[in-house]
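Continuing from the previous page of notes. For each protein in this section, the sequence appears first, followed by its C-alpha cells. Read the first protein now.
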Amino acid sequence: MTTTETNPACLDATDALRWLRSRVRLRPGRTLVGIDGPEGSGKDGFAEELASLLADGGQQTLIISLQDYGLDGNLGDCNAAEVRTFIEDVIEPLRNEGSGRYRTPETDDHGHPRWKCADEQAVILVEGLGLHQAPCCTEAHKLWDLSIWLDTPDEAPPQPSRSEPSDPHDDPSGPPTEPVSQPDLVVDNTQPHEAID
C-alpha cells in the first residue's frame, strides 16, 4: 500500500479514521466531509465511527444522511429541484463561510421544516451515494472540504468521465457535462477493523 503525507491512495478503515482525525484537527472553522461509495459499502456506519472518534477528541460532529432528506439512491438520479433545495438549505449553510443555520429533516406539528445552528467548529459528515458527481462535484467546484470513497471488492473508486486536457480551451468538444471528482481518500472498507483509541 502506497501512501503520501498529503493524500493516501488507499487505506484500511482503521488507518483512514486516524488519517481523517488528524486532517480535521488541522482545519479552522466548519469542515464538510462527503462519504460516498456503492450500495452496501457501509457509509452510515463509517460516518458514525468517524463522528464518535471526533467527538471523543472534543469536536462537535453532525451526520447528514441523504436518505433522511428523501434523497434515496444515487444523488445524480434524484429530482433536480429537490437536490438543489437540499444543497441550498442544508449544505451551503454548513460550509465554513455559511451561516451555520441549516434545515433538519424533521418538521413541526404544522409540517414546516425545523432549523438548527451548527457550531462554528463543527465537523459535518454527509453520507450518501453520488457525492462525487454533479452537482456536488464538478470540474470547477467541489462542495466537500474532504471527500471519501468507501471501496468494496466489486467497485472501483470514481474516475473522471474521460481524460481532461490541461487547458479546456484546447479541447474542441469542451468539458464533460457530468464530470466526476476524485475522492481525497479511498478506504478499503471490506474487512472489520479494530476500535481506535
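Done with the first. The second protein uses the same format. Note its length before scrolling.
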Amino acid sequence: MLDFRKELLDLQEKGLRRSLRVMESPSDSWIVIDGKKVLNLSSNNYLGLANDQRIKDAAIKAVEKYGCGSGASRLVCGNMKLHNELENKLAQFKSVEACLVFNSGYNANVGIISALVDRGDIVFCDRLNHASIIDGIILSRAELKRYPHKDISSLESLLKKSKGSAKKLIITDSVFSMDGDIAPLADLISLARKYNCLLMIDEAHATGVLGENGRGALEHLGLEDAKENLVQMGTLSKAIGGFGAYVCGTKYLIEYLINKSRAFIYTTSLPPAVIAADIKALEIAQGGKELRIKLRGNIGFFKGRLKSLGFDVIAEETPIIPLIIKDSKLTMEFSKRLFDEGVFAQGIRPPTVARGSARLRVTLMATHKKDDLEFALDKIEKVAKKLCLI
C-alpha cells in the first residue's frame, strides 16, 4: 500500500512539496495572501480585468436574470442564450467561422485533442507544451512524438519519417507558459501545409495580450490569414479576466467537436454569471489597446532593469518573465524571502518545469504602476544579492 506520509516527506526533502495558500482579496495588483498584503507578481491576470467593476456588474445581472447554475450539459438543456452569444462574439473576435466554449483550458485541450486524433494517428508536440496538451495526447491513444523546444529542423525530420495514411497533428503553445517565449508559428504553418498536417495552436497566454487588437500570437506575427487546417484554442481566464476556454475554426470543426468531444458532451455547462462576465470582459479586452500599451511599457521597463541587475531575460513581448534559479530549495527560499519583503513571486519546480530549471515565474499586469515595479525590483535585487544569485 502507498505510504502517503513517506511520499510527502520525500517530496519535502527534495524541495518539491506543495501546499495551498489562501488569498483573502480580489485578484489584483496588490493582494492579501496568508494574511499579508503583497505586490502580486504571480497572476495571469495580464490586463488587470479580473476585478473590473463592469465585469462584476455583468455577472450580478446574469444571476438575477438566469439564476446560479445552468442545470445540465449543453446538449441536454444547459445551452443558454448567453453561451451562443459568447461564442458568436469570440468568432468575430478571432475572425473565424465558429467557436465553441469549454469549461476550462485543461478541459478544452483534453477534449479537443482526444476528439481530433485516435489510436494509429501521430501527434508532434513541442517538448515544453502545457501539461494539459500532453494529457490530451495520452488520452487520445495517438502516438506521441516530442520535438526539442521550437526546433523546426527536428520537427521536419520527424515528419519525414512519419509517412503513411495516419492522421498527423502538430501542436504548440503560441506563448509558452513557463518561459514566455513565442513559438515559430510561420514555420509551423509552412510545415503543416507541406506535410498535410492539422496544426493546433494554444493561445492561452497570448489571447488579449499579443496583437494590436489582442487576438493573439497569430495577429502579432501577421499570420491571421493562415486558417487552412488550423485549430485555435485559448482561455478566458487569463488576460480576459473571466473563466473558461474556447476553440475556434471552421463551422465543420466546431460541429464535429460538439458531436465528438467527450469533455464537452459530458459536463454541465458554465453558469450564466461566468458567461455574462466573459462577454463583458471580452468586449473590454477587444477595446483595450491602452491596456496593452501600458502592459508592454511595463514589460520593457521591468525586463530592462532585470537585465541591468544581471538576470538572463528573454527579450519577447510577453508578460511572463522566468528568473531561472535551477535548484528547487533555493528557488523556494528566494520566493519566501521576497514574500517577507512584500512581493509575491511564486517559485516553480519540477514536474511543472524540467529538473534543474526551477525558477521564479514573474508575471506583469497592465495595472501595475511604475512605483509598484520599482518596489518589486528593489526587493528582488536585495534578496538576490543576499542569496548570492547576482
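What the second structure shows: The radius of gyration is 21 Å. The CA atoms of residues 12 and 18 lie 8 Å apart. We return to this in next week's lecture.
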